[in-house]
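Hallway conversation turned thread

IA: we were arguing at lunch whether anyone had actually written out HlyD family efflux transporter periplasmic adaptor subunit end to end. Turns out nobody had. So, for the record, here is the sequence (419 residues) and right after it the structure tokens. Reply here if something looks off.
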Amino acid sequence: MTLRPFLLPLVLILGLVACGGSEPDAHAQGEGGDHNDHAEAEAEPAKGAHNGRLLTEGPYTIELAIFEDGVPPEYRAWLYKDGEPLPPTAGELTVVLTRLGDITDTHTFTPRDDYLLGSLEVYEPHSFDVAVTARIDGQALTWSFPSYEGRTTIPAAVAKDAGIVVAPAGPGVIRDEHDVQGLLTPIEGRHARVVARFPGPVKGVRVGLGDTVRAGQALATVESNVSLSDYAVTAPLAGTVLARNVAVGDLAGEQPLFEIADLSALWVDLHLFGADAQHITPGLPVEVTRLSDGVSARTTLDRVLPGTATASQSTVARATVDNADGRWRPGAAVRARVTVAEQPVDLMVPLAALQRFRDWDVVFVRFGDDYEIRPLELGRRDGVNVEVLSGLKAGDPVVIGQSYIVKADIEKSGASHDH
């Protein structure tokens, strides 16, 4: 045994720890500027009476909070001078939020009761760089700080080694699909049981089980009991020897000596039960999957047989699958997904991209080396994709492979935001 199988996971873990390690510095930027003291930078920001972040410069303080009790998330702010409350009319306030992807939201404020109310909803995720400008008593004040949640940084090399795959979200088709079981069988007319024309002893056998033969090729030699002369038993079609039931010295009679089939294509007999038998009709697309290795092939239902399978009491739908690679084997069980209807949608993502974060269904978007959650409102789904009603826009770069790694790194970082 070598150490190589263990090195990549170790490198990945170390890389993720390294990229996550820089994050507390970003989350802990205090109000009013940078902090050189690392321990001070990790401290929680000071909170006010309304559980908002306190921004102080000289005698002036603004308490800024995201309020979401019974209303969509909104900014509220309270003004203070020398620790004493000021009326909301005593100042002006603007908050600019810069999100990943160079998206900016500008919140202006108007007086309400004892606070200033922001003009926009603070939509999820509450993850942004915050720039605050205010004017109180004619004094211009500014603050800036990061407020991140559901965000992490993974260097490109580490992401590549981890197998993280990103693709743009876009339109597509949601399919009404039915999962059924099936069985592979040779196609009628491409399958033959070869018998001797005249009874007699078998003098020679020229092919074996699994051999590929051409039409007219000699399979065995039999001495006729009628003429006492030898004749060749030949293949009626090109194909593969599925069974050889004869050996030299046997007596050829009415029983088949060989079974031959052209396996370049096979029938897939799908067994339909209950309502599936009413919905599934000829002409529908079907995806057939080999149980042995998970390889799939797309084809179309040729027909639904008129009878019922006696043993299973199922209706049989039949399709043809190409067998150019020779790996589809007669008698093997398969699973199939029949598409009954297709519905175009404006935006969808693969189900593999979805993760749970808090109480949300989310995907992760990537900008540079930064990854961040996007809470989604979801619509229709099939076995592969799900419709996105809100939370993304077409072209957003979504993690569609190894999304759980991004989730784990975000949870490790513990990024949160102020409410």
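OS: looked through it. Residues 156-174+344-416 form a domain with the conserved putative lor/sdh protein from methanococcus maripaludis s2 fold fold (CATH 2.40.420.20).
IA: good, adding that to the notes. The first helix runs from residue 4 to 21.
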